[in-house]
Specification:
Number of strands: 12
Bound molecules: coenzyme A
Distance between the termini: 30 Å
CATH class of the largest domain: Alpha Beta
Oligomer: single chain
CATH architecture of the largest domain: 3-Layer(aba) Sandwich
Structural class: alpha+beta
Number of domains: 2
Strand order of the largest sheet: 1-2-3-4-5-12-6-11-10-9-8-7
Largest sheet: 12 strands, mixed
Helix content: 25-40%
CATH superfamily of the largest domain: Gcn5-related N-acetyltransferase (GNAT)
């Protein structure tokens, strides 16, 4: 397959949309949970502060594209504990005629040699888990899975069988400090298994802020806690989210979903059914709100969550790949 590479300009907008539509339709056949059509905003295809390269056939028609832009999180952002503080975010679009194994490394080499912002930063690329060809090309280029968005339709029923000595209820403001301590412990656990995470020095204050936010309004957000012998030993923070192609690139079909934000069980209480019991109560909250499915983000490098979520029926839909 012969192709040449050039930088994209605004005039390439329609061609980029065509590539993205072909890609979305193809991936939808491989995993019908994904949207069958995606209309990407121009700023995402042609980032103002970044760059976009095209691999074009002999007639100059774009076959595939790689867009690159810098992403940065300040240490007090809730995302600072999830992602590295700064990296180049990449998006790859392949039309039906593109050979991924050839076009991806060629486009990546252009991005790697680029003189723009963040030349030395790590790279992060989000793509659907069902895209085996790109997964293989990413692994060959030294990338590894960093972060997964997993999903399942709302199960018919989830049997609630909490361990007999456990109480589960909604948190109040008096529980904020105990939940924040568990949350900080959970982030420390994550960081041990993902060296790219740089925890903030004020992680406890950040977790307290986040916990107060998660207490929610009782309608769109909820914070569930598990108590054992009067102590908070686990929490599940959940909420409703609207997937809307107008607001951001759609990850799933349009509609209301149940979001599982943060989850933790105290170290000495793990593996005795507390996480599963909290999930059963979360399921009831979601079922009352008639969501069309539930999704959760987890780190594939975390040896506990990477077993816990699949055991509850979640399947990977999108994967962020990372190379330092
Ligand atoms: C992930 C976590 C919340 C799970 O809570 P938990 O109360 O220990 O989980 P449960 O005991 O309810 O386990 C439910 C199922 O998950 C799977 N599972 C959980 N921990 C596992 C482990 N260490 N190894 C293998 N499977 C495991 C099992 O299938 C288990 O069912 P089983 O015990 O009947 O076989 C807990 O391990 C934790 O807090 N981890 C550290 C922080 C973290 O990773 N947070 C998740 C953020 S996404």
């Amino acid at each position: 397959m012969q192709f040449t590479i050039r930088m994209a300009s605004m005039a390439d907008g329609p061609a980029l949309q065509r590539l993205s539509r072909q890609q979305a339709a193809r991936l939808y056949h491989a995993d019908p949970r994904l949207p069958d059509e995606i209309t990407l905003p121009a700023w995402l295809l042609l980032p103002e502060e970044g760059a976009c390269w095209l691999a074009c056939d002999a007639g100059g028609v774009p076959l595939a594209a790689l867009a690159v832009e810098r992403e940065e999180w300040s240490s007090d952002s809730p995302f600072a504990n999830i992602f590295p503080r700064a990296y180049l975010r990449m998006r790859y679009f392949a039309g039906d005629a593109a050979d991924v194994a050839l076009t991806f490394p060629a486009l990546l080499a252009r991005a790697d040699g680029w003189q723009g912002v963040g030349r030395d930063a790590g790279r992060m690329l989000l793509h659907p888990g069902c895209d085996a060809a790109l997964g293989a090309a990413l692994a060959a280029a030294g990338f590894a899975p960093y972060h997964t968005i997993a999903h399942q339709p709302l199960p018919e029923d989830v049997p609630a069988s909490p361990p007999a000595d456990l109480e589960i209820r909604h948190a109040t403001r008096y529980d904020v400090s105990a939940v924040a301590t568990l949350m900080a412990e959970s982030w420390q656990f994550h960081a041990v298994h993902q060296p790219a995470i740089l925890l903030s020095d004020s992680i406890l204050e950040g977790c307290q802020r986040q916990t107060r936010f998660m207490l929610g309004d009782g309608v769109n957000r909820a914070l569930l806690i598990a108590l054992w012998q009067g102590e908070v030993v686990g929490f599940f923070s959940i909420g409703l989210s609207l997937q809307d192609a107008l607001a951001r690139p759609a990850l799933f079909h349009k509609g209301y979903y149940g979001d599982i934000y943060e989850v933790g069980v105290r170290g000495d209480q793990r593996r005795r059914g507390i996480g599963r019991a909290l999930y059963a109560v979360a399921w009831r909250w979601f079922a009352e709100r008639h969501v069309r499915g539930i999704f959760v983000n987890y780190a594939p490098t975390n040896p506990l969550s990477s077993r816990f979520w699949p055991a509850l029926g979640f399947r990977d839909a999108w994967v962020n790949w990372w190379r330092a």
